[in-house]
Protein: Glycosyltransferase family 4 protein
Organism: Hymenobacter busanensis
Amino acid sequence: MEKPIPPRLRVAFVSSCPEAWGGSEELWARAAHTLATAGYEVLALKTFLDPTHPKVEELRESGCTLRNLSAAPALPRRLLNRLKPATQQFSSSDLEKKILADNLRRFLPHLTVVSQGSNFDGIHLAETCADHGHPYILIAQKAVEFFFPWGPNREISQRVYQAARRCFFVSRHNLACTEDQLGMSLPHGVVMANPYNVPFAVSVPYPNPPDETPLELACVARLFFFDKGQDVLLRVLALPHWQARSVRVTFYGSGFDQAGIAQMAGLRGVTNVSFGGHVADVAGIWARHQALIMPSRSEGLPLALVEAMLCGRPAIATNVGGIAEVLEDNLTGFLAAAPTVAALDEAMERAWARRHEWEAIGAEAARRIRTLVPADPVDAFVTQLLAAVPEQLTGG
């Protein structure tokens, strides 16, 4: 961090993640941890806060104050709300905005960081910052190409993005996509990298399989059809030529659709798949697998791809989000033109034909990714965060 810490600088972090914890929260959480241990006053406000979650406990131990944005109102108030006409009832978003406004009024942050899992799901929270005069920055961890804000939400989204001191995106694709969806340029938009869960200099020997041993592919992603496209992969694996090949796929991660994946595999007669659960030892995954398979429909810049490349593994991935910004087709991996069965099958065919080159392709992927992501993404982000603090508030 290059900028000196003004005395008792206050930073608030706000997360709109609709789960107890999500991978999209790593950036804000690690930045909050860094600032708290460096002497800042840090307030973290999160939807669906689980006080027993290990990540939440880490933040608390670092000195962060945590508040739940999804706290339910008292029973009498909930009952009274139900008696009102539908147009007058408060929503969960209304409650989150009120809790946020009350906490920001007491804390008076010099800067608020609003972290979104996508690019519009935290707009109501950033709107609260704007309406109450709190300087803020936005983080967008993903952009879905076919999702456009509409009606009053469009004008609110435009105003919120315009008023932000910085707008951070994880890929050039996501920045351009958001500009198209808003119908306006974002000159204060910045592309930054997420923290990854392996050392920058990690080295994982390539696991050369003995003859007749199946190739092991890892699909590392949230178990969620809508974004991650596991159904597309299952349809490819159900094709006769893939049924005849010696290859196995392990789905790593957790999510709502584990049962759906298992049931679809059973329906399609796909028996060469299994579940590995959520694994903290990412390098350990790549000690056992030869390549990453990523059939996503929407992405920011997936951590699983960056981590696989750092570990020296090629990837077979759909050309969505920022994937093509780091994965060079036929050189560091294999790009499917779209998240469709035909396109993914075509990319997997090219990869299969060159499977004896995967170790060399993975080595080039490892070299290439180290030219594209910083060695310490959190420090890089914190430096930019500090630069966004209004100087008139800090005496700078």
Notes: The chain is about 40% helix and 15% strand.
